[in-house]
Amino acid sequence: MAPVDLTSVVNFLAGLGVRSLWDVFRTVLDISLVAYLFYKLFSLIRGTRAVPLINGVIILVVALQVAEALRFYTIQFILENVFIAASVALPIIFQPELRRALEHLGRGRLIKTSFRVDEFGDEERVRMIDQVVRAAEILGRTKTGALIVIERETGLNEFIDSGIKLDALVSAELLVNIFVEKTPLHDGAAVIRQNRVAAAACWLPLAEATVLPHELGTRHRAAVGITEQSDCVVVVVSEETGVISVAVQRQLTRNLDEKSLRELLLKLTEGNRRPGPVRGLFNWGASS
C-alpha cells in the first residue's frame, strides 16, 4: 500500500478552507446542524397534507434543471414564473404546517423525538378492519350515527389535533362506546391510524352541499369533505336509517352490508403500511 501523501491531504483541506482542528470541528458541527434541521423539517411535514405538495415542488425543481441543461427556453421561462408565483402561494398553502412547526419550536420540542420504526403488518390490518366492520354493524343496527376515518398515505395530523387524543387499540367495543349519544366523544369523527384509534371527536371539513343528495346530512358531507383533502377512507353510519356507507376519493358508496363493507375496506387498505420517523426520511411521502 502506497504511503499517504500528507502534503496532498493538507493542500486538499486548505482548498476547502480547513486550516486547523477548529475549522474541522466547525465544519462537522455545521453539517450536523443542517442535517438535523432537515430531519426535523421532514419529521414535522411527515404526516400532513404538505407531503404531496413538497413532492410536486421537488418535481418542478428537477424539471427546471433539466430544462436549463437542455436549453428548453420556453419551458424554463414558464417554470421560473411558476416558482415566482409559488413563493407567494406556498406560505399560504402551508399555513397549518408552519403554525404547527412554530408551536413545536415554542414548546421546546425540537429535541424530544422518538426514533422508532413502526410496522403495520397485514395481520394487524385485517384485525383492524374486522373490528371496524363489527362496530359499524352494531352501530347500524342501533341507528347510532358514526364517522370512522381510516388514514392511508396522506397524514391526518391536523384533524387528529382537533380532537381528543386516545392512541388506543382498535376494538369494536371502543368504537361503539365512542359514538353512543350524549357521551363526550360522540360528536365528531374517530380517526384510525394503523391499528390504533388516534383520536375521537375530531373536526372534519364539509363537502359542498351540491355534491350530495339532499337527504344526506352533515355527517355524510363531512365524510366526503375529508376525502377531498386526503386519500383516507371514511365509514359512515346514518343516525336516521342505520345505513352504512363508505366515502373515498370524493365518492360515497351506500347501503353496504357487513360482507360488502369488509371486502371494500380490505381492498382499499391493501398495502397500507406506514414508515416511522427514521425510515420516513427516505420514504416520507407515505408518512405520520
UniProtKB/TrEMBL annotation:
Keyword vocabulary terms for this entry: ATP-binding, Cell membrane, Membrane, Nucleotide-binding, Nucleotidyltransferase, Transferase, Transmembrane, Transmembrane helix
Question: What residue ranges are annotated as transmembrane?
Answer: 20-38, 50-67
Q: Where is the DAC domain?
A: 95-258
Q: Which domain of life is it from?
A: Bacteria
Entry EC number(s):
2.7.7.85
Q: Which InterPro entries match?
A: C-di-AMP_synthase, CdaA, CdaA_N, DisA, DNA_integrity_DisA_N_sf, DNA_integrity_scan_DisA_N
Q: Which GO terms describe its molecular function?
A: adenylate cyclase activity; ATP binding; diadenylate cyclase activity
State the Pfam families in the record.
CdaA_N, DAC
Per UniProt, the enzyme's principal EC class comes to transferase
Q: Does the keyword Cell membrane apply?
A: yes
Keyword Cell membrane (UniProt): yes
Instruction: Tell me a GO biological process for this protein.
Output: cAMP biosynthetic process
Catalytic activity reported: 2 ATP = 3',3'-c-di-AMP + 2 diphosphate
Entries under PANTHER family matching the protein: DIADENYLATE CYCLASE
Please report which protein family the annotation says this sequence is part of. Answer: Belongs to the adenylate cyclase family. DacA/CdaA subfamily.
> According to its UniProt entry, what is the function of this protein?
Catalyzes the condensation of 2 ATP molecules into cyclic di-AMP (c-di-AMP), a second messenger used to regulate differing processes in different bacteria.
Assembly and partners are described as: Probably a homodimer.
Protein's recorded name: Diadenylate cyclase
